[in-house]
Amino acid sequence: MSTASTRLPEGRYGGTSDERADRRLRTAGVILGALLLVLVGYWAYHYVVESRISAQVVTFDASADAVKVHLEVHKDSGTSGYCTLRSQAADGSEVGRADFRFTGSATQIDRVVTLRTTARGTTAELLGCHAD
């Protein structure tokens, strides 16, 4: 006696449940990948576009207990924020750090700021500027 086959004929009744699960997982992966790409793009856009303050150290003059820094700041009109400066001694240790605030409608600010130090500073380094 022969036994009747319990397998369905191939291609007649659609894919197997494993094929359907694979297709669903692939679709979910594509959707999640696209969402991640959009999210990273959003963060990158706001990181670049929202940076409304840029600055540079033009010159500096060090004394025994302070460093005078000529700071040039470019910003959008009406934007307020701050720039962080630091000074290091000859051995590389940090001897001073301070934030300097900028407000107002001017788009370019040239200012000489005084950074107090605990020892003679040999550098004036701009660590960064941030908008409020």
Topology diagram in text:
Blueprint: H1 17-49, E1 53-62, E2 66-75, E3 81-88, E4 94-102, E5 108-116, E6 125-131
Antiparallel strand pairs: 1-2, 2-5, 3-4, 3-6
List keywords for this structure.
alpha+beta, three-stranded antiparallel β-sheet, 25% helix, elongated, 132 residues
Percent helix: 25-40%
Rg to the nearest angstrom? 31 Å
DSSP strand tally: 6
Q: Outline, from the CA principal axes? A: elongated
Task: Note the beta-strand portion.
Answer: 35-45%
Across the major sheet, the strand order is 1-2-5
Mean pLDDT: 86
Largest sheet: 3 strands, antiparallel
Strand pairing plus helix content: what structural class? alpha+beta
Low-confidence stretches: none
The topology string of helices and strands comes to HEEEEEE
Annotation field: number of helices: 1
State the end-to-end distance.
86 Å
Summarize the structure.
By secondary structure, the protein is an alpha+beta fold. It is built from one helix and six strands; from the N terminus they run αββββββ.
Provide a descriptive summary of the structure in words.
- It is a single chain.
- The protein is α+β, with helices and mostly antiparallel strands and 132 residues long.
- The chain has one helix spanning 17-49, and strands spanning 53-62, 66-75, 81-88, 94-102, 108-116, 125-131.
- The strands form 2 sheets. The chain has a 3-stranded antiparallel β-sheet with strand order 1-2-5, with no helix packed on it. A 3-stranded antiparallel β-sheet has the order 4-3-6, with no helix packed on it.
- It is elongated.
